[in-house]
Every structure is written in C-alpha cells, then in structure tokens.
Design brief:
With about 260 residues, this protein is of the alpha+beta class. The chain has nine helices and twelve strands. The chain folds into three domains: about 50 residues, no CATH class; about 45 residues; about 150 residues, 2-Layer Sandwich (Nucleotidyltransferase, domain 5), CATH 3.30.420.10. About 35% of the residues lie in helices and about 25% in strands. The strands form four sheets. A five-stranded mixed beta sheet has the order 10-9-6-11-12, with helices on both faces. A three-stranded antiparallel beta sheet has the order 1-2-3. Strands 4-5 form a two-stranded antiparallel ribbon. Helix 7 links the parallel strand 11 and strand 12. It is elongated.
C-alpha cells in the first residue's frame, strides 16, 4: 500500500483513477489519505514539493541566489517556483511587519511625545532592461533600524508623495526625517519635520540597508543576469525581504 506524499501516513485508501487517463483507458491509480484528507497518485512524487522543501525555498529567497539557481538546488521547475513565489509575495503584510511605539515623557501635569527620528533615501534599480529605471524609495526608523515604508517608481515628486502616503498616519505628526538634497522631498515632507543635507552621516543607517538589500536580493545586484523581468515580481521580492528583515531587527532588539 502506498503512503501519503503530504504527511507520510500509511492510512490511505484507493480513490479511483485520474480523469484524463480514464478517457484514454490508461488512468493512474489515485489515493486519498484519511489523516490529512488529501489525494495523490502513487508515481506523483516528482512534482510534489513537501512543506519542508517549501520552507527551504523560503529561506533561499532571502539570499543572493537566482530563481534558476533555486530550481537547480531544490530540483523544482521554474514554472512551479514562479507560481509559488507569487503566492508568498501576496501573503506579505502591508505594514511590512514594522513595529514601533510612541515615546512619551511626563513633566508635571503635561505629557510630551518625543519626535521619532527617521531617514529616507532612494535606490536605483531597473526592470527588464537598463533604460527602464525604477527607483526604490525607502523610509527607515533610526532607533530600531526597521523599514517603515517603501515605494517603487520614478524619481519624481509623485513617487516621493507615494512614499509619504505609505507611512502610517500616527507617525506623520511625530516623525523627523533626514534626507539627501533631492528636491522632491522638500515639496512633500512638511518643512518642520524635515532636514535635508548632502552629508551621508544623516542617512548612514539607510545607506547601509541599501547595501544589504543589494547584497541579499539577487535581482538588485549590479551587473547581474538575475534582473527582474516583471514589475510585480520586482516589488514582491523587495517587500518579501523587508518583511523578514523587520522581524529580524525586532528579534535583535528583544535579545539586547
């Protein structure tokens, strides 16, 4: 008797034959697992990807390895991998797993909310061809080094506005942003909440994250063959990495 490919249980029963094979007169025997309630065919192990292998794929997506490289390592097809990562990207939360709290200081009868120090910068990238440039706009929480929001677009004022709109509303009134001397920021971020400078020391944490992003996401590496062919996958890969990065930063903060 066959064992279940999903949960490895031997508690299985026969469940007819495959429909296409039935019409041709050479159907494959189907089985149903009474434990996990899933169906499978006995020789279908080549296309089946277990949960453990999927978990391993999740980890490889966070490293500097191409999609075809993942296919070679995990012995899966590129078609299956594209379908799988599309589902994984769609499961990522809109808040990017960002967590930070207001810092309040009480002086007598008054309570003051301290300003949150943040940094914003853009990262050059492209999709499909080098002249199709897509800038990655990123806002970073200085204290926790977590990414607050990001936007992928051109380098115009409208893209800067999209980044500002992606920042949580409760933060906009108590954030103080450090940016480079790009004019788009000056027209979007309120002047009392903004300081622009050409000196890298004011955006050094975000510059360091940009370097990490390039080193860890293969499609952002310069002079690479692993560039994005589709904008949705481009955005999804960046979002996927940022969501896991924020969780890692939270674990480091708790450990400290």
């Amino acid at each position: 008797m066959s064992t279940c490919h999903h949960c490895l249980s031997a508690n299985v029963i026969k469940k007819g034959v495959t429909l296409r094979g039935k019409k041709l007169g050479s159907g494959k025997q189907r089985y149903r697992c009474k434990d996990c309630k899933r169906t499978f065919v006995e020789d279908g192990l080549n296309w089946f990807v277990s949960d453990d292998r999927k978990s391993f794929v999740d980890g490889l997506l966070l490293e500097r390895i191409s999609l075809r490289g993942i296919c070679r390592v995990m012995k899966v097809s590129l078609r299956w991998l594209l379908v799988y990562i599309k589902k994984r990207y769609a499961q990522m939360p809109e808040d990017l797993n960002f967590k930070a709290s207001r810092v309040c200081v009480k002086e007598g009868d008054k309570i003051y909310v301290q300003l949150i120090d943040c940094q914003a910068d853009e990262l050059w990238s492209f999709v499909y061809r080098r002249d199709n440039v897509k800038y990655i706009w990123i806002a970073l929480h200085t204290q926790t080094r977590q990414i607050i929001a990001f936007h992928v677009g051109d380098r115009s004022r409208e893209s800067a506005r999209k980044l500002w709109e992606a920042i949580p509303e409760w933060m906009k009134g108590i954030c103080y942003f450090h940016t480079d001397d790009w004019d788009s920021y000056k027209t979007v971020i309120p002047g009392e909440r903004h300081e622009c400078s050409k000196q890298k020391k004011y955006t050094n944490y975000l510059e360091r994250f940009n370097n990490t992003l390039r080193q860890r996401v293969s499609r952002l590496v310069r002079e690479t063959l692993s560039f994005s062919k589709d904008l949705d996958y481009h955005i999804g890969a960046i979002k996927y990495f940022i969501c896991h990065y924020n969780l890692e930063r939270q674990m480091k903060t708790q450990a400290a």
